[in-house]
Specification:
The complex is a heterodimer.
Chain A: H1 12-34, H2 45-57, H3 61-64, H4 72-101, H5 103-106, H6 108-123, H7 126-137, H8 141-165, H9 170-177, H10 182-216, H11 225-233, H12 237-265
Helix pairs in contact in A: 2-12, 4-6, 4-8, 4-10, 6-8, 7-8, 8-10, 9-10, 10-12, 11-12
Chain B: H1 12-31, H2 36-41, H3 43-54, H4 62-94, H5 102-117, H6 120-131, H7 135-159, H8 164-171, H9 176-210, H10 218-227, H11 231-259
Classes of the chains: A mainly alpha, B mainly alpha.
Chain lengths: 266, 260
């Protein structure tokens, strides 16, 4: 039987290239590890883990069934409300940004500027936005909505503009050749064509915002985050664990519903 | 000229859906107490805060921002490394087309889904309580978060590989390990590396804020200065970390474009 041999590229240049690439990667990782001091587990860690586990076994059911404004159901509903409103705000604002960033709508030069603005917004952490908006509207859910609404433009604007750039230009050209004005072209050709993708991306962003909304409370922007961080700081493990568990279940359910809808849309 | 008459389709179902969605959005806005008028009326307050932060930022504080920023980068690198390292074997287990055993892939996926529902911030605050304040807690939180993210993306690409190569090896009598080594890995490694870089980008951003709950990095410096109301220093921290994130995103997304 004939043997098949595959020749490996062993030219010196190739070997040097690989050594630099992989060696550099290894060096970077080692450099990173040297900077993380492992001070050993705290002396109290064993006790903390034990009480954490005890919290998982008998969570604070009274908190979960507390239907008042201090209870868990209210906080969860508020978190969902923040995520929904924030996503909606950002979806609306993202459309003009996306149009500004789409090469086939505004031309190359403007689209580069539009893309740059969207990237800038995306890099700005929502937690810092939340802090800024807390100073505007005071602590509470509205600050969270604004923070999510602005931050999500960064991702939605990018996805929207990609959808607009890859759309079929025929419809737009047909309307233009019939003398359609630019608002007509926008509302009758561009938006109807890309709307399923736009809605699908918005749903996807809603899933992400649901997770974000549950952490915004850490800085006082409403939602489940505030009672959670308070429970963790005061070592109220039964309460912290019921919050984490309810959060996992809620986010999973929302993910499931949203991905079902998304599959049907596109 | 003849007019072309397009019959109007029945929009009843669509309109009901739209109405329900609008009601949901309005309901949430009202429930959360969102009032656009207050926002616009109080806008000057926000402008004042931004002025104190950025006009001008306290540039003399900049040298003190660099060490925690480097710590943030280290946290992101180590967190991504461990997360990706654990994600690869788990993704192989979770892919339905490799082991062909739903009794393994389904539970693994369920666990992965649970991991992905917990935000990194919540993980970090839990680990700070267990391991103490410092970057180590942050690294563990980031590792777990990255693990969930990368393993999901990777098992999805394992499931969409070209199966011809696997079948070719099977017809030669190769065992599972050989199939993994010679048919699956070469196909998914570029994508896996790209997902890892993406995870790194996400991690740099989360590592920058994790310190807010005490998990090390620039966030901790940020929180101190905010608590002392040193807004001009906060401005410097925001500007510098913003630039670093921008550069990392740019470099990493260029490498990713070359990979896939």
């Amino acid at each position: 039987m004939e043997k098949i041999t595959v020749e490996k590229n062993t030219s010196p240049a190739q070997i040097i290239y690989r050594v630099i690439n992989y060696g550099g990667l290894v060096l970077v990782i080692i450099w990173g590890m040297l900077g993380i001091p492992y001070k050993g587990v705290m002396a109290t860690a064993q006790g903390t883990i034990n009480s954490l586990l005890r919290g998982i076994i008998n969570p604070d059911m009274g908190y979960m069934t507390n239907m008042t404004i201090d209870g868990l159901p209210y906080a969860i509903v508020e978190t969902i409300a923040i995520a929904i409103s924030g996503t909606f705000v950002s979806a609306v604002i993202s459309i003009p940004f996306a149009l500004l960033a789409s090469q086939n709508i505004v031309g190359k030069r403007v689209s580069v500027a539009g893309k740059f603005i969207i990237t800038l917004i995306r890099t700005f952490p929502e937690l810092i936005l939340a802090l800024i908006f807390i100073s505007v509207v005071g602590p509470g859910a509205p600050a969270g909505i604004l923070a999510l609404g602005i931050h999500s433009i960064g991702m939605l604007g990018k996805l929207f503009s990609e959808a607009i750039e890859s759309m079929d230009m025929g419809v737009k050209e047909a309307l233009e050749s019939c003398g359609g004005s630019s608002p007509e072209v926008l509302f009758r050709a561009v938006l109807p064509q890309v709307s399923p993708e736009l809605i699908s991306y918005t749903m996807y962003r809603f899933e992400i915002n649901m997770r974000a909304a549950s952490t915004l409370g850490l800085v006082g922007a409403g939602g489940i985050g505030a009672p959670l961080i308070f429970a963790i700081r005061t070592r109220a493990w039964p309460r912290a664990m019921i919050i984490v568990m309810v959060l996992i279940v809620t986010v999973s359910i929302i993910d499931m519903i949203s991905s079902r809808i998304r599959k049907r849309l596109v | 000229m003849d007019k072309i008459i397009v019959p109007r389709p029945n929009h009843l179902k669509r309109n009901i859906v739209i109405l329900a969605v609008v009601a949901l959005i309005l309901g949430s806005a009202i429930f959360a107490g969102f009032n656009p008028v207050t926002v616009i009326r109080n806008f000057s307050k926000g402008r004042r805060l931004l002025g104190r932060m950025f006009l001008p930022p306290d540039w003399s504080y900049a040298p003190k921002v660099i060490p925690p920023l480097i710590e943030t980068l280290r946290m992101a690198i180590v967190g991504t490394f461990w997360g990706a390292l654990i994600a690869l074997p788990v993704a192989v287990l979770a892919a339905s087309n490799f082991l062909n055993n739903p009794w393994i892939s389904k539970p693994v996926r369920l666990i992965l889904n649970i991991f992905r529902t917990i935000p990194a911030m919540v993980l970090a605050s839990l680990f700070v309580a267990v391991f103490g304040i410092g970057p180590f807690s942050g690294v563990i939180a980031l590792s777990i978060f990255t693990f969930g993210l990368i393993s999901k993306l990777t098992y999805e690409s394992i499931e969409s590989i070209d199966f011809g190569q696997v079948e070719a090896l099977m017809s030669l009598g190769a065992n599972k390990l050989n199939i993994l080594r010679y048919a699956i890995m070469p196909q998914i490694l570029p994508q896996f590396m790209s997902y890892t870089l993406y995870g790194f980008e996400v991690n740099v951003r989360s590592a920058a804020v994790l310190g807010y709950v005490g998990a090390g990095g620039i966030g901790q410096t940020f929180e101190h200065n905010l608590a002392w109301r040193n807004f001009d220093r906060v401005g410097v921290i925001i500007v510098i970390s913003f630039l670093v994130v921008l550069v990392i995103d740019f470099v990493s997304s260029n490498i990713r474009k070359r990979l896939v």
